[in-house]
Amino acid sequence: MSSTLDSPILTAAIEKDLAGSFTITDEHRDFYRENGFIKLKQVLSPETIQFYGDVITDQVIAHNAQQVPLEERDTYGKAFLQVMNLWRHSELVKQFVYSKKLAQIATDLMGCTGVRLYHDQALYKEPGGGHTPWHADQFYWPIDSNNTVTVWVPLQETPLELGPLAFAPKSHLVKRHRDLAISDESERLIEMTVKETIQQLVETAFDIGEVSYHAGWTFHRAGANTTQRPRRVMTVIYFDQNATLHAPQRKEHENDWNTWMPGVEIGKLIDSPINPVLYSH
Ligand SMILES: O=C(O)CCC(=O)C(=O)O
Asked: Fewest CB within 10 A of the end CB: N or C in the chain?
């Protein structure tokens, strides 16, 4: 279904930018595999970012369900407005989420033959919004593969005071705390582990057009937005096109199974109509 908000025109240059390719070198792949994340500059053009900053913001405003004032929410609620699967509401957002370039990078970093869509989500940290607690995304995902990855695309330049995504290098190899939902407890326990075993956190600003990819088991967080501007971010989650569904182990798995891969059977390929292959070679 299309939204009536889809009035801006996608230029040929933006279409070409989304459909283009980006060379992933052996150094990129080795860095991603060793550290569980990578930051890449100049992946998307300033024009693409400017255009989608407006398009996605309109969609977030149209579909945001959060009505509780910021100061009355819990830590998770203060971290961001979270609006999911915008590609199903807007043809323009669909073209972004279906970007061949973003999916090709995901495929090449993981070294698989192709990727499917898990879901997209816009993550808008409001002015004065709180920190995003430490967590690993795959806690929520009943996917029987470690080849899962999120591209985090800031829709503006993102200095430290806006709350850019920060990563604990090599934490995708840490087996502790994989059973923690995003919470004050995940922030406290993972922070302790990161301090004890990993020591240095990668928390740096993002330029316009710079994006990051982080693996499903990588511990990550984001600082508060101490400015009066929103931190606007779009994300797309991919998984190996050959991955299967494992039996749910917690209520969050049940929820994701029903929401993001409806009708898929345990042990079978995750290929529901809302898990299209976005890139394959
Ligand atoms: O944007 C944020 O603050 C958190 C993002 C995140 O946790 C993710 O994309 O997996």
From this structure: N
